[in-house]
Amino acid sequence: MHIEGTGRFVFYAQWPVAVFLPVLFFIGRGNLGAEVGWLGFFGLVYGIIVIALLLVPPAITLFDREVRRARATRLNYDIASAVLWLGFTLGALTVPDAGDSGPLDSVLMSWFGITAETSAALFAISAGLIGLAYVAQLALAVMGAARSRSARI
């Protein structure tokens, strides 16, 4: 678990990205051509919860003395963060939504004319990626903090 050059970018970017991605996912995709329905409405509540969850691993990295001293995260954490961010981006582009009048187009449906089934399948893949990457990111943050703490004892 070593620190690389990408860690400095992740160390600083993880804070605003944790706020930006849920906003993009729930509301911002409307600016990219998607129709926003009930997901955008409920996103006001769920978005706050998602933001809080996404801020947990960055907060844990602050307990890692090496990371805090170098102001850069570890390489494995960087990889998990990149996969999480890509998963959220793909999810925002493909998430199915509905309104009172029925199903609404996702970003990729309006841009490329893909079917609703394809968009839903891509969203299922991105949801799995998000879940796995978040668990990996959280575990790597805890492992790094624990390793840093045990080295001093």
If you had to describe this structure to a student in words, what would you say it looks like?
The protein is mostly helical and 153 residues long. The chain has one domain. 75% of the residues lie in helices and 4% in strands. The protein has a two-stranded antiparallel sheet. α1 packs parallel to α4, α2 runs parallel beside α6 and α4 runs antiparallel to α6. The protein is elongated. The model has no long low-confidence stretch (mean pLDDT 90).
Pick out its properties.
153 residues; mainly alpha; 2 strands; 75% helix
Quickly describe the structure:
The protein is mainly alpha-helical and 153 residues long.
